[in-house]
Amino acid sequence: MTAITDLLYSSPTLIIAVDGYSSCGKSTTAKQVAARLGYAYIDTGAMYRAVTLFFLRNGVELDDADGIRRALDSISISFRFDPVTGRNETYLNGDPVEGEIRMLYVANAVSKVSALPQVRQSMVTLQHQMGKKRGIVMDGRDIGTHVFPDAELKVFMTADPLIRAERRQAELLAKGTIVGLNEILENIKKRDHDDTTRAVSPLRRAHDSILLDTSYRTVDEQIEWVIQAARERMTQLKEKISLEIVSA
User: Fold this and answer.
1) Do 3 and 241 meet the contact criterion of CB atoms below 8 Å apart?
2) To pair with 77 at 20 to 30 A between CA atoms, which of 24, 43, 216, 241?
3) What CA–CA distance (Å, rounded) separates 137 from 41?
4) Residue 133 marked ligand-binding
5) What pLDDT, on a 0 to 100 scale, did the predictor assign at position 4?
6) Domains observed in the chain
């Protein structure tokens, strides 16, 4: 009886997939949603950026299948929460790389690296392992369509390209990096094209996702919007579980 009571009164644990275009606020929103819900946060974009950084540092050629396989076999990616900064930090083979993977030279190369079938297969396998315990918020390009197609909540984020470029420029300026707005805008447009036209797991909106346009929403509004959607989904699943128990 205790097990049934627990099912009736506890909140279902969700897998929340957050997909969308670059610089829409996916990572910022997903991190805060995870913190509010007490879930684990997994930044898949950072995973692909970390692989890209490794390839660039080690001169891995994108047409060298054997070299790519050896590189992937030697890569370890992990995330740690830094209580001082309040940020999730990305580690590549034990070294902190959060700052470097956000640099423009990595951003310019990440779409081609992430489009490689070997790279995607390796990262998706790792993402599946990370999601086995559920209670996660994972953001990326193909989480709701490919990595976790059965996720209980799928959010697809979009925003006007110029607004996204302005946000990205502000982020870089805050880190002391000066880049022209037109250069950033062109980079964003190129990434959009590469992400939506790649042969393997292209960026597209899942048919059962909910659309969140962040063009004119604050970060706090974005977070509250997703939190509310998660709570509504939990309520729906709880009601479904209750009906199934009563009908059994």
Assistant:
1) no
2) 24
3) 5
4) no
5) 45
6) 15-237 (3.40.50.300)
